[in-house]
Write a structure and sequence with these properties.
alpha+beta, OB fold (Dihydrolipoamide Acetyltransferase, E2P), five-stranded antiparallel beta sheet, three-stranded antiparallel beta sheet, 8 helices, 38% helix, globular
Length: 269
């Protein structure tokens, strides 16, 4: 069976001497694992089409129940600047890991595919280029968008992704009775008032304390289109607290820490 679709490389895994197993987010089949024969060889015809974050038109062959083999791939957009920038690559890898961890394989979702693609297009547009004497552009840092704004945009992207997957934490009102509360319980994925959280309070389970400003920013994140979210400029404290909240939320959802989070913790030590 021959299939052609658009795909974004989320993850690659070495197999045997020169083969690869690739996790793709595809337009027509959702998340799938594919097999590529000898792409790690110097003379491979696949070249860079199987690099992480690459958006390509891929042709596969194989039975539906088996892992399809890629026989052809044409790059539509390489997104090489996102791979070259450490901060961008780690944050995009975190988005990819969340997607792989929470989205079942083989379930087409055009909205999620376009969301992930548009996030990469938006972020790459924030990495400027300068012209040289040659016809090829060269990356240049400093385009009016500072690191804090990028941190905010990646946080907003994670919030949007969790919302699209149906796993966004609830911060607006107690998850049981709806009363306003600023105590977030990661194991429940929601804020809870003292009356509804009495069992947790008795067990001395500590909630994550949030503020009205965090709730308002979070509501804007969910309500605004991702393309206009660059206008949101929250203080560093909101970014830090909400990022930590999402980490704890994901830890309970997955019953483990994200590998990207573990990696960042190690390099920051």
């Amino acid at each position: 069976m021959l299939t052609t679709t658009e795909g974004i490389v989320l993850k690659t895994q070495k197999y045997a001497e020169a083969d690869l197993i690739i996790t793709h987010l595809t337009l027509s089949r959702g998340i799938i694992k594919t097999f590529a024969k000898s792409p790690r060889k110097t003379k491979s015809r696949f070249g860079s089409s199987l690099e992480p974050l690459t958006h390509a038109k891929i042709t596969m062959v194989g039975k539906e129940q088996a892992m399809p083999r890629i026989i052809h791939a044409d790059i539509l957009k390489s997104f090489h600047t996102l791979r070259e920038n450490f901060h961008d690559f780690v944050n995009m890898s975190k988005l990819a890991e969340i997607l792989i961890s929470l989205m079942p394989e083989g379930m087409p979702n055009k909205k999620l595919f376009l969301f992930f693609l548009n996030i990469m297009i938006l972020l790459e547009s924030l990495n400027p280029v300068r012209k040289t004497n040659s016809s090829l552009p060269v990356r240049q840092t400093g385009n009016g968008v500072n690191q804090k704004q990028k941190d905010s945009l990646y946080l907003i992207s994670r919030i949007h992704l969790l919302a699209l997957l149906g796993y966004a934490p609830r911060l607006k009102g107690c998850g049981k009775c709806g009363i306003k509360s600023f105590d977030f319980y990661p194991d429940s994925g929601t804020t809870m008032c003292k009356k509804c959280a009495i069992a947790r309070i008795e067990k001395k389970v500590s909630p994550i304390k949030i503020t009205d400003s965090i709730v308002k920013f979070y509501s804007h994140c969910l309500g605004w289109h991702i393309q206009t979210s660059i206008r949101l400029k929250p203080p560093k404290e909101i970014i830090s607290t909400l990022s930590a909240l999402l980490e704890e939320h994901l830890n309970h959802l997955l019953n483990r820490r994200l590998m990207t989070s573990e990696f960042l913790t190690k390099i920051q030590q």
